[in-house]
Amino acid sequence: MSWLRPEGVIIDGELHRGLEVAIHHGVIEEIRASSARPEPYILSPAFVNAHSHLEYRGMLDQIPHPEYYEWIYELTRLKPLETPEFVREQCMVAAKENRATGVAWMGEHSDRTGSAEAMIANGLGGWIFQEVITANDADVAARMKLLRDRLTQTKALCTSQSSLSASLNPHAYFTVDRQTLRELGENGEPSSIHLAETIHESNYTRTGTGPLADRRRSQGIPFEIYGQSVVEVLNDLGVLRPGMQCVHCCDIDKKDIEILSTSGVTIAHCPRSNVRLQCPISPVREMLDAGLTVGLGMDSPASGGPIDMFAEMRSALDVSHERNAPLTPQEVWRMATSMGYQSFGAPKGDWNIAIGSKTPLIAISATKEASVESMIRLGSPTSTRWVN
Ligand SMILES: [Zn+2]
Q: How high does pLDDT run on average in the chain?
């Protein structure tokens, strides 16, 4: 058994001083009042990256286009230029960087191969979502067979690490056909979908206007106009149900938030990516007040930038103030730890510092005067190290 004597311990987002923590074989055995002079660091549960795309690490700072649709068309153009070996290497780099910034668990969207190997090699637990994209496929059944085969391969790799699982997920409303969306809603498995990231999704479903609708028309592909927001349409399709994590939720209104909070979904908030791609600022304050579970995700390095959970937390605080609907530093820390973990349905165990907990722990360099806010403002991967 070893005793940790930090300056402070972050328990459920709140900083507690004057405590020491005993660890034995990775389990917290005891928490008691300090018996010796503390060392200059803060002890915290490791971070949870609620939404990630390791495979785009090679596109960090490679796409200058400022707006979402120009950006994603460029990303789509660059993708086939990357070799499978390069993608695997970049997944490794990104997984290592997640580890370096204190992430132990993540929700990973994966289109190409490489995430599972990289997460296993770097001791990262989490959920791998094999992205389903069918909107441009004439033969949806053939595409689904290919994706199911890929999922089987990923699941076989996951068995080597008990804290890694995999399932299929719909990439977004506009990239998946309606029948497949219904099926992925019905199967009840843990899943994740990009939702209302831009204003274009609800313009597409509500009035059939904007770049999504224009693209469909130029391709000669028919589409339905519902007079409803994308949240309402997905809810009617049965996609919004417990176990579904909705990523972004930037362009949503009061009615959408009500639907989200009654449907049992959870949310992943990715503020740096949203700022970079000129998305509306997500109404996280309102979602938390409505009782929704919101995790914090770093998204893809092609939009979110360098893999740094402290930078993501700073952005979450800053954009909430910009909206005049501030989050507290404690809420943001919870979003980056325990709430992020809870955003994946109901994974086994807790994600906190408590007796009997096996939650991975990190130590972040800090002075006596440290607060949760100063940790967010001043923290970086270089000030973070692993405890267990
Ligand atoms: Zn994403």
A: 95
